[in-house]
Amino acid sequence: MPITVLLVDDEPLVRAGLRAILEAQPGIEVAGEAADGAAVVPMVRQLRPDVVAMDVRMPLLDGIEATRAVLRTVDPPPKIVVVTTFENDEYVYDALRAGADGFLLKRSAPAEIVQAVRTVAAGDSLLFPAALRRLAAGRGNERARAAMERAALTAREAEVLRHMARGLSNGEIAQALLLGSETVKTHVSAVLAKLGARDRTQAVIAAYESGFVTPG
Q1: CA distances from 62 to 120, 127, 130, 153 (A)
Q2: Which stretches make up the Response regulatory domain (predicted)?
Q3: Which of 19, 72, 195, 196 counts the highest number of beta carbons within 10 A?
């Protein structure tokens, strides 16, 4: 089955560029387009895309609120990649905290755009660049540290979370720790459950905000 994508951006040229890039790839289809975050929920319900590529700044409803709306009202929700001009954009970080699955620069090369869509669709690795890791670490707080302590991760789960924070996929973690892929999936699921995290992105944000891992 092809990966279906909904493009959400208030600039028609940006949507046209993304469509041209994605539809040139085998196994990816653009299911539709929206010019504002306010249209996202009904379009997601109608089209059921696998991935939403969402501009973070839009005039009526921005990507942060649109992400929250999708996750609150659509079950199961699609994967969401926020798209922006600047990698250290606080809006992008807030969108990730709201539940977006990854991040993409508008100036990214076509191959990077395609890989981003495939990565979030697969769901076992992370788009969380260094600039955003520094933002997360800078927002450290006692609540995050206390939540990490309450999680009481085992030594192996802690290792897995550190590798997740580096952006490694399950397969890469398995190679690094000399474990089977199914074993890694089990540890990842345990980490998410203990942290009360919806997905890998939320777990990694918790890891940085708590100081469990640091940028570098």
Answers
A1: 21, 20, 23, 35
A2: 4-121
A3: 195
